[in-house]
Amino acid sequence: MDFVRSPDWPGAPQGAVATNSAAARYGAPSGTPPPVGRATPPRPPAPSAGRVPAPRAAPTGRAAPPIPVKILIAGGFGVGKTTTVGAISEIAPLTTEAEMTTAGIGVDDPGVRTAKTTTTVAMDFGCVTIDRSLKLYLFGTPGQARFGFMWDDLARGALGALVVVDSSRLDDCYPAIDFFERAGLPFAVGVNAFDGRLAHDLGAIRWALAIGDHVPLVQFDARDRLSVRDALLVVLDRALDRATRERGD
Hints:
The protein is of the alpha/beta class and 249 residues long. The chain has a single domain, classed as P-loop containing nucleotide triphosphate hydrolases (Rossmann fold, 3-Layer(aba) Sandwich). It is built from 6 helices and 8 strands. The strands form 2 sheets. A 6-stranded mixed sheet has the order 4-5-1-6-7-8, sandwiched between helices. It has a two-stranded antiparallel sheet with strand order 2-3. The longest helix has 24 residues, at 225-248. The termini are far apart. InterPro entries: Gliding_Motility_GTPase, Gpn, P-loop_NTPase. Residues 1-61 are annotated as: Disordered.
């Protein structure tokens, strides 16, 4: 079979335009090839005399994204760094927790008041939006001395740090304080109130840590979101004061 003709459209005489052709149905001259390429958009009509065309509406501007601020959550082993990040992070925190084994007996001492069975082997990560202009990115450091080589990388670009302290094990926080003092990074010391109480008052803790009055020392609860927020605001205030003084110089 050479062709199929629809019964709805009768054949045209020889030399005439077929009634079911595009030329007959849409008025285009017979033999005119269809336009190739992108169609040219129609020109807007010219404004009539005395009529001013309405101005186009300006695109609505978007609000500027918040400024990212990197904050370290540091301290000794088992003082509550991972808990601190998880309590305030607005996203599911990234943790690198690994089960503690018998190989850590005598090496990793979480203290007698904790049932801790895991430990951070790399870092913790979380974030929290302070307001429309400021967003904190929290990096929790590992507490064991054998992971100390990671601290330099984690501290790069940080604005400040919160050193978490267990008042019953002050010796564990000395390396963190020494690190930030040598690095010249603004920091605050947050004493985690395990079970809502401290082993020593804040004045005795400041004396034992041998930190100056310029270093903020606060009591907080690592499990409570608002308490963690207040401690982080102290770190921001310390960092802002440092930046203001440097700008004045």
